[in-house]
Design goal:
The chain is an alpha/beta fold. Helix content is 35%, strand content 19%. The chain has helices at residues 13-24, 28-40, 54-63, 123-126, 135-151, 175-186, 206-215, 229-235, 244-257, 277-287, 312-324, 353-360; strands spanning 6-7, 64-65, 70-76, 82-87, 93-101, 104-108, 112-114, 129-132, 162-165, 198-202, 219-223, 263-269, 292-298, 328-331, 365-366. Strand 3 (70-76) and strand 4 (82-87) form a beta hairpin. Helix 1 (13-24) crosses helix 2 (28-40), helix 5 (135-151) runs parallel beside helix 6 and helix 7 runs parallel beside helix 9 (244-257). The longest helix has 17 residues, at 135-151. The chain is globular and about 70 Å long. The protein starts with 5 loop residues before the first strand and ends in a 6-residue tail after the last strand. The protein binds S-adenosyl-L-homocysteine. S-adenosyl-L-homocysteine is lined by residues 119, 121-122, 166, 170, 201-203, 223, 266, 268, 297, 299-300, 343-344.
């Protein structure tokens, strides 16, 4: 073999077509066949691709590979939520969470190892920023989840109907790799999801929101968490760079570019911090007359945090005030918190935490290497 093999996982259609043409002298439809094998059928081995000629498969083995991250552990929550820890290197891992509901299956994926945004209420912030994930590492999370879910699912029903970038990392800080991954999620030869079913959640990187509006329309969720700059500066430090008066116009612009589809604002409910009736009224003023939805997230505790979750009655009252002002607000159901898979509880350390879990947790199933 000469040089490094190219990982075909994560090559958007146009790039894959260019690759088969330039490196293998093959027609574009070969790229389409390959995509079907990789994403629809979950193949990782060229030998299994029975409708490709033997010598083409041999050629592919020389110059290409399909490599996915390695699963370190899998945990299953009492509510059916599943969490996989994927190895990135000796020390670091990332986490991917599957949330089954009666009418859909949502996969919550990571975009970075760690995160640099430093939000005070998020467990991922505590580990700092390590690196961006590659396109293959982002798409690989879906590939692996689909394989694992198909193995345990009878009838072949579609397990993953929605993908959300609400795992570890700030997706817009890894724009270069996140956008090609989203194209594969929406490609009909990839995961064939509609734009509404792919959600990018951001802490508010304003220039990238404008860029995304031009280049790749997916559902947008914005982590607002506070109705004024003073409080938001403290909770979401990126606000000092891109304050609310810059962030909201970017969101309204995004809505305009999307033919009026709404933006979802996430709002974590922190006891005594951002959950007062006055905060709800301030929020309602910000949202007035806009196509916005508020998603209230009960805070999920993690070791070492100084925050507490707002009581259920406080959250309900906050929601009622918003609704009374004509703002659509819902409360997110907490899922998978018994396996630390809930929002903001993901902190991928392969060492220590995993070793503790492997022995201690009831549902932990240690997994070894993935065949490639
Ligand atoms: N970086 C992206 C994705 C973060 S995770 C973003 O900031 O949007 C998805 C959501 O969970 C975000 O709204 C995030 O603020 C929220 N979150 C983080 N920590 C949390 C915690 N401990 N409890 C509840 N929600 C949390």
């Amino acid at each position: 073999m000469v040089g490094e093999r190219v990982n075909l996982l994560g090559l958007p259609r146009a790039q894959l077509e260019a690759f088969v043409a330039q490196r293998l002298g093959a027609k574009p439809f070969r790229a389409r066949q390959l995509m079907k094998w990789i994403y629809r059928r979950g193949a990782a081995d060229f030998s299994a691709m029975s409708d490709l000629a033997q010598d083409f498969r041999a050629q592919l083995r020389e110059v290409a590979e399909i490599t996915v991250p390695q699963i370190v552990t899998e945990q299953v929550s009492s509510d059916g939520t599943r969490k996989w820890m994927l190895r990135m290197d000796e020390v670091q891992g990332i986490e991917t969470v599957y949330i089954p509901e009666p009418d859909r299956g949502t996969l919550c994926i990571s975009s970075q190892v760690g995160c640099a945004m430093d939000c005070t209420f998020c467990a991922t912030a505590q580990q700092g920023f390590n690196r961006n994930l590659s396109v293959a590492e982002i798409v690989g999370q879906v590939w692996l989840a689909q394989r694992e879910l198909t193995e345990t699912r009878a009838g072949g029903a579609r397990a993953i109907t929605n993908i959300v970038f609400m795992g570890m990392g700030e997706p817009l800080a890894n724009y270069r790799n996140v956008v090609p991954a989203m194209r594969i999620f929406m490609d009909d030869l990839g995961y064939d999801l509609s734009r509404r079913r792919v959600t990018l959640s951001t802490s508010g990187l304003v220039p990238q929101i404008y860029k995304l509006a031009e280049e790749c329309n997916v559902a947008l969720a914005v982590s607002l968490h506070a109705p004024n700059d003073e409080l938001r500066n403290e909770l979401v430090p990126i606000n000092r760079k891109h304050p609310i008066a810059e962030l909201l116009p970017a969101c309204w612009h995004y809505i305009d570019q999307q033919n009026g589809r709404s933006v979802t604002f996430e709002y974590v409910m922190l006891d005594g911090v951002n959950d007062k009736p006055e905060h709800a009224r301030q929020l309602a003023r910000l949202m007035q007359g806009r196509r916005a939805k508020l998603n209230l997230i009960p805070f999920n505790v993690f070791p070492g945090t100084r925050y507490r979750r707002s009581p259920a009655a406080v959250i309900a009252r906050f929601r009622d005030i918003l609704n009374d002002h004509g703002v659509i607000a819902t409360t997110r159901k907490t899922r998978g918190d018994d396996i630390e898979a809930a929002c903001g509880q993901l902190a991928g350390k392969v060492t220590d935490r995993t070793l503790v879990r492997l022995g201690a947790k009831l549902h932990s199933t240690p997994r070894t290497a993935v065949e490639t």
